[in-house]
Amino acid sequence: MAVAAGFLVVSGVMLLWSPSLCAGVPQGLADHSVVIPADGLAADARYDFWLQANQTFQIIDRTADFSAMVEPPTFSTEAYAYNNPNCDLGRKISYKQEFAFASPDHIFWRRDIERDELDGRKYTFTTPPDDGLEDRVVEFCLVVSGPGTHADGDDPNIVFRRRLQDQEFFTASEHTLTLVIHAGARPQLTGILSGAFGGVALSLLSNV
């Protein structure tokens, strides 16, 4: 449902399609990806991604010392629940339970360790194939925290070290990306998008 470097963002009541490359915006070879750039995040943001069978979503951390944090810390096996239109950070869902038809051998998240120094640290989520999907859409949330864009003489890496040392001392120089994943078979995704956004969504899907 997406072309490499393109993405669907749901913001308020607007559905946007953008192939642009900038801080915190998807890019790369995965079907969808989000980048935490070396100079930090300029602002908080939310992105919604729509993944079909076998599609991939990637988090790329290019900060110094790979200081971005993905939450929940157990994101390789579970994520925060999604209660339309918001994320429920007090409740978690298990990928294996939500994708109950997926093969027991399916690996939801992988980390590309070998290319860390070249491309940044990459975490890649893969949706199960068609025969591993039910007739519904699985929706979940992740929160990625990264240093704020360098400003007022503050080194974002110092701020992060400060945060790890004393949570109460940490204040402002951090931003978060809220990532909402909607994963399922194309007919189910089409139904959700067309119901919410009508002709605009159908037009976008027809170009994928």
From TrEMBL:
Residues 1-24 form the signal peptide. Keywords: Signal. This is Putative toxoplasma gondii family A protein. It comes from Toxoplasma gondii VAND.
